[in-house]
Write a structure and sequence with these properties.
It is built from 17 helices and 7 strands. Helix 16 runs antiparallel to helix 17. It starts with 7 loop residues before the first helix and ends with a helix. Helix 3 links the parallel strand 2 and strand 3. The chain folds into 3 domains: about 140 residues, Rossmann fold (3-Layer(aba) Sandwich); about 70 residues, Orthogonal Bundle (Helicase, Ruva Protein, domain 3), CATH 1.10.8; about 130 residues, Zinc Finger, Delta Prime, domain 3. With about 350 residues, it is of the alpha/beta class. Strands 2-3-4-1-5 form a 5-stranded parallel sheet, with helices on both faces. It has a two-stranded parallel ribbon with strand order 6-7.
């Protein structure tokens, strides 16, 4: 059974299950969901709790299996948490998880919580995950998209009795806040809590831009895949900020270059296929372009000429050399400055087609 994170309270009204599997790349959301589950379970008599963290290939699963079948003299019911940070339980763990899943049927004395990171499609098709999904409740936690982050921050502020000013000032405040915490949801949560302590309601119920600017630290974190989406979206200012952030975090110039140049190559391959008579949906699928990138390619590719793509490929080739220590005429000697210029060139073309 699949459950959306926001449906928990409605789900619990119909009764708690014996097995929950939570997976995703947002530790804050996973932790909050698990906290709500545990709080509800304690009210139902689940007073004992054991936690097992699976680390290494030689983890002893027999202890986990034993804990699920035994209660102390003072506990009516128990919570057994199994945390698998790697997302790979191994051969022995796969068998153990299937046993735990099957044992959950009809067992209302043990609440099993399985916590996993983001899983790829191959892993979710494995026998052990299939058993967890069949016999229990699975909850997938998706990252908060950048365009949804202002709304998420606004909702969190409202939950603690605060809000930003109405109108344009409020939107500017939320955008500023989002820029400071993008990619770091746990830090965003902490910054929101800090605002509650600095400007408690009722006096601080309406936050000004200056209050947020003075209080919120720059704790944003970026990754090259989000950078790629921003470049294709023509978001020039955001791209420049993300490149500065990646440089400050010590990210490899070569990896950042690969992310940008791979999209240039991808656009060229799809464009060549279209020119050869292949419909765009089929050309995108053949080149493994899907999801958000599929929509971005569909928007910008029709207006980009073959000459433009050839020029971008040439620029990407030059920046590849710069990142590896070579010099190119009329290009910055610094790899990061060259990356800024290359990303700007792609952004410029994508922004023109997005209008």
């Amino acid at each position: 059974m699949n459950l959306a994170p926001g449906q928990l309270q409605e789900h619990l009204k119909r009764g708690i299950k014996s097995l929950y599997t939570m997976y995703g790349d947002e530790p804050l959301l996973v932790q909050e969901f698990a906290d709500s589950l545990r709080a509800h379970a304690r009210g139902l008599g689940y007073t004992e709790r054991t936690v097992h963290t699976v680390a290494g290939a030689h983890f002893d699963w027999s202890e986990v299996l034993a804990s699920g079948g035994s209660l102390s003299l003072f506990a009516d019911k128990q919570i057994v948490e199994i945390r698998i940070p790697s997302g790979k339980p191994g051969k022995e763990g796969s068998v153990a998880l299937q046993q735990i899943a099957e044992r959950a049927q009809g067992d209302d004395s043990t609440l099993s919580l399985i916590m996993l990171p983001r899983l790829d499609s191959m892993t979710t098709k494995g026998a052990w995950f299939g058993a967890l999904e069949s016999y229990g409740v699975t909850v997938k936690f998706e990252p908060i998209a950048r365009n949804n982050l202002p709304q998420w921050i606004s909702q969190r502020l409202q939950a603690q009795g605060q809000r930003v000013a109405a109108g344009e000032e409020g939107q500017r405040t939320l955008q500023f806040f989002s820029d400071r915490v993008e990619g770091n949801l746990l830090a965003a949560h902490q910054e929101i809590q800090k605002l509650g302590l600095l400007y408690p309601p009722p006096g601080g119920s309406v936050l000004s831009f200056e209050q947020v600017e003075n209080a919120v630290l720059n704790v944003a974190r970026y990754d090259v895949f989000k950078l790629s989406e921003a470049v294709l979206g023509g978001q020039t200012v955001r791209v420049a900020r993300m490149l500065d952030g990646l440089q400050a975090e010590g990210e490899s110039e070569v990896l950042v270059h690969w992310a940008i140049s791979e999209d240039i190559r991808g656009m060229k391959r799809v464009k060549d296929a279209i020119n050869a008579g292949r419909p765009m949906p089929m050309a995108l699928r053949d080149n493994r372009i899907w999801g958000i990138k599929e929509k971005l390619y569909e928007r910008v590719l029709p207006g980009i000429t073959d000459t433009t793509l050839a020029n971008l490929l040439t620029a990407a080739h030059k920046v590849d050399g710069i990142c590896k220590g070579l010099k190119q005429p009329d290009w910055p000697a610094s790899g990061w400055q060259a990356l800024h210029r290359l990303a700007g060139l792609v952004c410029e073309q994508c922004a023109l087609r997005a209008k």
